[in-house]
Amino acid sequence: MPVDCLKLLNEALGGSDDARGELLEQYRTYLELLARVELGRRLQTKVDAADVVQETFLEAHRNFGLFRGRTEPEFVSWLREILAGRICNLLRHYFGTKGRDLRREQAWNVNIDQSSRAIDRGFFALQSTPSQHVAQREQGVLLAEALARLPDDYREVVVLRHFEELTFPEVGRRMGRTVDSVQKLWVRALATLKQSMQEVV
Amino acid sequence: MSPFEESQTELDPPSSPVAGELLDDPRVLSVVEEYLAQLDLGRQPDRESYVNRYPELAGAVAQCLDGLDLVRAAGPRSSSGSHLPAAAEPPPRALGDFQIVRELGRGGMGVVYEAVQLSLGRRVALKVLPFAATFDSRQLQRFKNEAQAAALLHHTNIVPIYAVGCERGVHFYAMQLIEGHSLALLIRQLREQAGIDPVESETRAGDSEAAVSLTDAYLGGVVPLGPATSENLRSTAGASLTITARAARGGDNYFQKIARLILQAAEALEHAHQLGIVHRDIKPANLLVNALGTLWVADFGLAQFQAEASLTRTGDVVGTFRYMSPEQATGQRTAVDHRTDIYSLGATFYELLTLEPVFACETRHELLYQIVHGEPKLPRHINRAIPSELETIVLKAVRKSAAERYATAGEFAEDLRRYLDHRPILARRPTVVERVRKWSRRHPSVVVAGVLLLVATSVGLFVHSQMISREQEKTAAALDREKQRANDAERLFGQARQAVDLLVEVSEDELSDKFDMQQTRRRLLQTALGFYQDFIDERRVEAASQDELAAVEQRVAGILHELDLMRRGLRTMLLNNPVVVRELKLDDDQQQRIQTLFRTWNEEEKAMRSSQDATDEDTGRHQRFVAFAELKAPAIESVLTDGQFQRLQQLAWQAEGLGAFKSPEVVNALNLSHEQRLAIRKIERDLFRRRHEHDPGDGGGPGGPPKGRRQFEDRGGADPGERGDDGTGKSASFRQRHREAMAKVLASFSEEQLTRWHDLTGEAVDGLNELPFGPHGPKPLHR
Q1: How many Cβ atoms sit within 10 Å of the Cβ of residue B626?
Q2: B556 phi, psi to nearest 5 deg
Q3: Are B658 and B680 a contacting pair, CB within 8 Å?
Q4: What is the pTM assigned to this prediction?
Q5: Is the preceding peptide bond at B424 cis, omega within 30 degrees of 0?
Q6: What is the pLDDT of residues B568-610, one digit of tens each?
Q7: Which of B24, B47, B64, B84 would best serve as a mutation to test chain A binding (most A beta carbons within 10 A)?
Q8: Degrees to nearest 5, angle at CA B68 with B64 and B70
Q9: Which residue, among B705, B555, B703, B568, has the nearest Cα to B637 in the 3D structure?
């Protein structure tokens, strides 16, 4: 960081395969966080979000020609749509849903939107730290990056507590730890987050 | 007002990292948790007091709160859409001249407070606009202009706007406090009373909708009069609006009350429209009714700003989409004029009448599609008690095309007034023809079926004309007419289906045994097959009729396949004709092999015949011929070189004579116009008529199965008895006339058509029609 995503996007739009690959790579962490939260909420278990994101990238790569936007936010929201579709597929598979249930898909999609909105919003806080790069980056992407820089168990506790909205006892059960230790982790995670965020920006 | 702004001083410059043991102090945890709990309750805790509670831990706590602010803002605030920044704001205690008393409600579009306007000492409803925060200065100015224009509206049925203002970055809108309920609440209440499954209705609109419509009910600045029970509602509405579910399902009184409400709204709209102000977001939640049954239209001048603001949010505005006009749904901003309000009021009216939305869709996408393309269910189909005048009025208001709606809200109001005064209304229902036209616009493939109906008429189906004449019987009971109208679309499909079924039936029952009609039959069947495929495409949804259609389609396809086989068989049979053998220059070896193959077939056929049920010789022969075409023709064809085969095909077309012009391939290849086909048919008819004049004894009725080779003779073949008189007598002269007829047809062709015909047929050869075999099988080989 900081990578000039807009420049990459323009190069990718111009037909550069390398740029396309590198561009997608910029959003891996962000999409993995989204996927992880969505799937985690639905399946009440930790799923490997990396696979879904990989599929998303494949699809995005394949269908890059269909992307009609010009800006980073448009691109990110395009990626989110693809991810939402992938997640729906996966959930259908998990729940063995017969046929298509549009209503459920809709609900899923909305949730993706909500999660991403929420994560994006988290970034508004960061805007109080002036930075030239910030304005050019999709905000949620950066928060995801910052979270990714935390130690695994720090990140885990934040995601479970705040994004999957579990209580501490639930977080403890999920992580196989005592409530006490989970709370300690939480405090440390919070204390570290801002630092991490500043590194990302 | 973001909760993070206050933390800015703490964030900048960054405090130095705090040692781990300080963070492990349980007091840090408890302070941070307490702070979080306050946030969760929607309060704005005083950050400083938390940070400084334990001075020795201030650094650690501050650092945690920084992190918490980051993720806290990111965490989805589970319920009720309160994740909107403005909704999380604490209620301001005072805004300029206005002292906040209490919160009346909140929803996607803002928070409404009851307030006192200090300078005048009056109670007002104060709406705080969350979206204004996202406006740029130009938008903000436009918003102020619009709101101020709306504030100039003075009408008994428009909620007066007292003030539009901005205090400390908070934009608000002060209006008269109305004591009553919104129509959204009324509809909800009536639906519950009527036992319309509330769960279903909620999920139908998406999870958030129920909550939104409930809060929206308060958003217009209405003071809720306690929990909405039916008791309560009745007392609210007072004497003038006693509405119960039973009344809603019947009883003129109810409908008159509804009409009176909508009338007031229409009058309010007319007033605003005349001043050039379009509401753009008329919906039940924006129509407030007070205890006296007076209706107030709220939120003039806000709609487009709400729309702009909601672009950044999704999922919480389904309720509004429901009343959106088609021109709004398709995003034609410039097309949105006052008639948009007429549509939306119509949609509201519809829902009050039927207690069902115009389009009940599960997703926004589907809903928008329906608004643009769907036809609303007839209200009287939902509830027979609805007066037909009101049905006519409401349907006119919600027409897709703005030009077909009431031209003004005043006209809308006038018709309602006429209804209430028991005078005839002015709106006219669309006639059957209009409806059919509308319907066919959406089902283009079935329009083709309409054309087909004409074909069908010519074979004796008069359903279509009957339908029209029935419509013209103005004396028919109104009831019947309505029922009929509702079923028109369905019936047109039914009729088209019937006509096509009839085509198949005719081609099978009447034509299958007429050899000279095989091309016609094929054409009919191919047409029919096309229609079935269209029908199947149209009717994707209905599994039952789908299966049935698929079965018929398959049958027709089967028959067509058989017909193709027969053509192939006939083509192969040409190889028995010495003229053809000469023309193809078959060498001795080829002739030998072909004759062998024919001979084998002959034997096999004989064996087949003896094993077949002898009761129906014609059918048996037909089956055997098809079998021949399928089993033997390929082998015989394979004896030919490519060139010979192509020439054979050309000769086959020639041998068909005038009949070739009925085959789909030739019609397409030559691009024959409808007129040309008619002309050819006439030439052909003349040819046969003259033949029958010459030979009256030869014209068998169409009912009887043809015997022997009459059909072939019709096309210029020779009777056995006449064979010797070749060149003289009737059949020779018929052949001559056939040639003349052919010449006549070719003379009517364009240059291009002639070229194509020559490509198809090659050089003309005489004597092709003297086929030494009958039409139903390789009979000559028995001779």
Answers
A1: 18
A2: -65, -40
A3: yes
A4: 0.39
A5: no
A6: 887 888 888 888 888 888 888 888 888 888 888 888 877 777 7
A7: B64
A8: 120
A9: B568
Are A72 and A138 contacting, i.e. CB atoms less than 8 angstroms apart?
Answer: yes
Structure tokens at B162: 């007292």
Give me the pLDDT at residue B417, please: 93
d(CA B593, CA B639): 7
**Comparing C-alpha atoms, which of B345, B300, B289 is closest to residue B154?**
B300
pLDDT of residue B102: 76
Locate the DSSP E strands across B151-267: 161-167, 170-176, 178-182, 222-223
Lowest mean pLDDT among A170-174, B15-19, B150-154, B332-336: B15-19
Predicted confidence band of residue B531 (pLDDT cuts 50, 70, 90)? low
Residues on chain B touching A195 (C-beta within 8 angstroms): 14, 17
Indicate the residue of A165, A186, A190 with minimum beta-carbon distance to B75. Answer: A165
Distance from C-alpha of A147 to C-alpha of B734, rounded to nearest angstrom: 95
**How far apart, in whole angstroms, are the C-alpha atoms of residue B749 and residue B287?**
69
Q: Tell me chain A's radius of gyration from C-alpha atoms.
A: 17
Residue of B205, B240, B254 lying closest to B366 (CA atoms): B205
Inform me whether the C-beta atom of residue A27 falls under 8 Å from chain B C-beta atoms: no
Record: contact A187-B18, CB cut-off 8 A: no
Task: Verify whether the Cβ–Cβ distance B67 to A123 is below 8 Å.
Answer: no
Do residues B516 and B711 touch, judged by C-beta distance below 8 A? yes
Prior bond of A2 cis (ω within 30°): yes
Closest alpha carbon to B406 in B386, B392, B422, B420: B392
Pairing of strands B161-167, B170-176: antiparallel
Q: How far is CA B157 from the centre of its chain?
A: 37
Strand order in the sheet with B122-129: B94-95, B98-107, B110-117, B122-129, B170-176, B161-167
Q: Which residues contact B457 (CB under 8 A, 6 or more apart)?
A: B464, B465
Compute the distance between CA of residue B606 and CA of residue A82 in angstroms, rounded to an integer: 67
- Quote the minimal CA–CA distance from A179 to chain B in Å: 12
Question: In this structure, what token pair is assigned to residue B264?
Answer: 């007031």
DSSP string, B10-44: HHSSPPPPPPHHHHT-HHHHHHHHHHHHHHHTT--
* Helix, strand, coil in percent for chain B, rounding step 5: 65, 5, 30
Give me chain A's average pLDDT, please: 73
Over residues B16-39, the pLDDT tens digits come to 556 677 888 888 888 888 888 777
CB B245 within 8 A of CB B190: yes
B67 vs B346: which has the higher pLDDT:
B346
Which tokens in the block code for residue B490? 């369905």
B126-163 as b/e: b if 16+ CB within 10 A? bbbbbbbeebeeebbeebbebbebbbebebebbbebbb
Helix H or strand E segment including B99: strand B98-107
Cβ distance B20 to A188 less than 8 Å, yes or no, reads yes
Sign of CA dihedral B219, B225, B229, B232: negative
CA distances from B700 to B687, B708, B711 (A): 16, 12, 11
Mapping DSSP to helix (H, G, I), strand (E, B) and coil, where does residue B174 land? strand
Match 């190889």 to its residue by tokens. Answer: B575
Contact B289, B186 (CB under 8 A): yes
Q: Among A30, A194, A198, which residue's Cα sits nearest to residue A130? A: A198
Which residue carries 């017969």 as its tokens?
A98
Angle at B758 between CA B752 and CA B760, to 5 degrees: 105
The residues, any chain, with a CB within 8 Å of residue B348's CB and separated by 6 or more, are: B183, B262, B265, B282, B283, B284, B287, B323
Query: Which of B24, B69, B74 lies closest to A118 in CB terms?
Result: B74
Cross-chain residue pair A190–B315, CB shorter than 8 Å: no
